[in-house]
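Many groups now describe folds with learned vocabularies. In that spirit, our science desk offers one protein's residues alongside their backbone shape tokens.
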Amino acid sequence: MTLAPDYLERFTLRNLQDALTSATRRYWEARAAVLEAARPRPGDFHGNATPEALAARYARLTADAEECRRHAAILEHATVDADLIAEVLGWDLAADDASEAAAA
């Protein structure tokens, strides 16, 4: 098997991006939001799921989202070079801060 010349560099960069992303508050808050959005809601099609199964899934997703938010809270106080992470991930923190301020 022959690899493209820049494969190892791209592979390494992607792994670094994944590691840095999962080390950010933003990642864990977004993960919590995804889990909350996945909770069963009235009016959704639930197939053959019983009310007990739906309640258990709702509770599990809610607990998992709370864990993600706790993880985010811990990372909020971590000493991480946010500028370095933003540079590697290609984020524009100034634009994000401006949009958050406008939404508030």
